[in-house]
Specification:
By secondary structure, the protein is of the alpha/beta class. It has 12 helices and 6 strands. Helix 6 (115-126) links the parallel strand 1 and strand 2. Helix 8 packs parallel to helix 9 (211-223). The protein is elongated.
Amino acid sequence: MSVKTQPEGTIKVIATVIALATLVCGSAGWALKLGVTMHSLPEILVRTIWLYLPRPEVMSDPANNDVLRAGAMFGALSGGVGAFAIWMAAANAKLSHIMTRFLRRGHIIVVGDTHLTARMVRALAEEEAVPVHVTDRPIQRQERKTDDLRMTLELTPEALARKAGLLRASSVAIDMGSDAETMVMAKPILKWLERNGPGTVRHMAVRIADPFLADMFLEFAQKIGLGKLVRVSAFDENRVAARHALSSHPLFVRAAARKQKRVHALIVGFGDFGEKLFDQVMLTSIAGDL
């Protein structure tokens, strides 16, 4: 089961089709039995609405026509399927957690409760991946939406393995909101994977903005005995965005188009993204002699 609510959507479509079939068959059946007159139209309407409640007497009455019996059958089904759709919506998170704990394979575990992890989960779901979002913060009932499948658990390697299927996952992404907390979270997981084997995990990505701390973490990861089994990378969303911006509009292409050996790049603003963009422009310029 994906994080996306595809089973719910299917159930809702089925419930809608059955409800429409009840309306059509019920009104047609009562019209055939009572006749269509100005006096009988209100009665036909009321009797058709009643068909949405289980009416065994309508099915058993030999005087009723087959169309009316079909309407009564669809009405009973409509109530049952509608109730099941409501239950599916209410139990969506619980069902997803059960699937993750016992069955799910090849999913991507996203650890942390930040704006970045929330965006990562949405982006992965849109790409038909199966993200499992775990946090140690209790999610209040009033803030949890139907499609909010966050799991609240103790963020230890043992708990992730037992409840989030760590050894059956394909990747792990971590952002705890600060570089230090992210490193404290990621290091025990790497050590645990070294002791117990990585299972199907092939990639761990951690959000560390500071280049010095990122180098420290990658140096630690290289000392772990996982070898080439698990690729470990440190990323910063501003650095990734800067690289994407330059790859979308390469400086050397602009230089070649203008037959110039030098390119003048003006960066307005110097926030986190501007700083990373400046770094990437400098690296690109040095590498391309621009």
